[in-house]
Amino acid sequence: MNLEEIDGRIGEGWGGLAPNGVHVNVVLAKRGSATAAAALSMFAHPAPGHTPVLVCVGPTQPAYEPVWPPTLMMNKATASSERAQMLTWGAGQVGIAQGVLDAVADGLIEATGEMLVLVAIWLDESADDETAVRTAGRVAVRKAIGVCIEGRAPEAVARLVAERETLTNPFYGGE
């Protein structure tokens, strides 16, 4: 699949169990495209409490190196406590890196500077297990990239259409 075909594709993934589960939204962009420009603009104009990060890994700060393809992460919810900040930019960032690299290893995407991966990550403010958060992030990102590349199963779409009158989610308490 060439970069023109995947530019602007979006996917969603959930990994793990509450409170250490992770939810992500992923957008793939071709370098130089309008999608990439919009993704990169978050670096220049982040909302208060939201920090854009080029995903890097390494045992020490001087040893940091970026994941390839370049991956940008942004927190979806304000990380208001020091613990939530450490989990977001520590375990969450490593999980994102691993999920992207899993997608590269699985042949879904290429490790190229011509593609950008944008990941918006949500962590529960009460998360308390950094290994579980890392693992959940890894699973969520790999799943979301899979949706970007492979799409949704037609059966899943048909099921949602059939169940549309009874749809709900954990944040909806109405009838």
Outline the structure in words.
By secondary structure, the protein is α+β, with helices and mostly antiparallel strands. It has one domain: 2-Layer Sandwich (Ribosomal Protein S5, domain 2). The chain is 39% helix and 20% strand. The chain contains five helices and seven strands; from the N terminus they run αββαββββαβαα. The protein has helices at 3-6, 34-44, 82-105, 130-150, 154-162; strands at 10-15, 22-30, 53-54, 56-57, 65-66, 71-75, 115-123. A hairpin with a 6-residue loop joins strand 1 (10-15) and strand 2. The longest helix has 24 residues, at 82-105. The N and C termini lie far apart (43 Å).
Kindly list the characteristics that best describe this protein.
175 residues, alpha+beta, Ribosomal Protein S5, domain 2, 7 strands, 39% helix
The gist of it:
With 175 residues, this protein is α+β, with helices and mostly antiparallel strands.
